[in-house]
Give the backbone structure.
Amino acid sequence: MYRAIPWRINHPSNEPDSVTLLMSEYGVEVKLETGAKVVLVNKQGKVSEITSYNFTVPSEGFAIIYNSNITYLVDERYKVGDEVRYEVIIKPVFTKAEDWNKVVNAMCLDGGGSIALYYPTSRVNIGGRNINNCLAFIENKIVGEIATPTKYKVTIDEKEISLTAYNINGNNYFKLGDIGEEFGFEVN
């Protein structure tokens, strides 16, 4: 699994090394910078198209733009049909110093002319101000296997029912509670 850390959300960037996430709310045609590529993701969370042409964000989907210096990442990481998702975690609380140990990078959101960036090994302040409020990106490692939910037809007492199965490494697993419900008993 790969991750992309956007420089901007719903605000296109012309910097050649930038990654931008645009959500369907963006709502207007996007003119790509020369040499950029975009990964278009539909409402089912699947890559529907990869293009270098102007586009509109798919309804209920999103787009990830890789500008000219980093388009090779699109070729390495995505193909049509791949499952892609984004996650926004907002933690509107004051943080402790040790919370910053998990931060991959951050950007200042003060809205003024100053810019402050944070990387695990250093802090870069441009404009004279420290990071006062920010959007921080943390590394969220997946532990274990990924379970892919799918509908699965099962026959019980000559009655066909549809249950949600969870495919892990080619094996289907069912929740005991779902099976118990079909047989009329409760699983705690």
Helices lie at 72-77, 176-183. The chain has three domains: 8-77, 97-138, 148-183. The first strand starts at residue 8 and ends at 9.
